[in-house]
């Protein structure tokens, strides 16, 4: 019982610290609506700029990260998207769901563990017509070790725990109460190294 009380206190303190430390980020990442939560920032012009303004269409058309521009922007359900060209904006506007990153643009590897965090615009894969973002090369390689199993886990945690909930609360909860298959970064790096031998 003492252990459970201690974990509750740690979780409460962690959640409080996250709330106090990142009100701007918390608001940017939790716009409400069907796309919430998202990996977003607040910019001078937008409150919820998806994936730091990356052109989400370029991942499909060019196979690479391309920074978007506020000159070409669209808004879907309160979330702002930037594009590198009018053509990309047109493609997005015609079928937004084809281009919106999975798991709100958070690191796919984090979502495998029920943790919505990380995710940078330069580490990604397009698989079965869907865009997956990662927090770095190690995170990407860890997911690729068993892609289908990891995507199934991420789909489950996204739909059952993360989607529609506050990203900071979910992050704090899963950092204290970890999923049974949780692995540290070091454990994942070791698994990647072992698979390469």
Structure description:
There is one protein chain. This protein is α+β, with helices and mostly antiparallel strands and 197 residues long. It has one domain. It has 9 helices and 6 strands, in the order ααββαββααββαααα. It has helices spanning 2-21, 23-29, 58-61, 86-94, 108-112, 137-144, 147-162, 167-176, 185-196; strands at 40-41, 49-50, 69-76, 79-83, 120-127, 130-134. Strands 1-2 form a two-stranded antiparallel sheet. Strands 3-4 form a two-stranded antiparallel ribbon. It has a two-stranded antiparallel ribbon with strand order 5-6. α6 (137-144) crosses α9 (185-196). The chain is globular, with a radius of gyration of 17 Å.
What are the key terms here?
alpha+beta; 197 residues; 46% helix; single chain
Share of β-strand residues: 15-25%
Alpha-carbon distance between the termini?
44 Å
- What is the C-alpha radius of gyration, as a whole number of Å? 17 Å
Q: What's the order of the H and E elements?
A: HHEEHEEHHEEHHHH
Strand order of the largest sheet: 1-2
Per the principal axes of the C-alpha atoms, what is the gross shape? globular
Number of domains: 1
Low-confidence stretches: 17-22
Count of individual beta strands: 6
Count the DSSP helices.
Answer: 9
**Main β-sheet, in a few words?**
2 strands, antiparallel
Indicate the mean pLDDT: 90
Query: Based on helices, strands and strand pairing, what is the structural class?
Result: alpha+beta
Question: Can you give the helix content as a percent range?
Answer: 40-55%
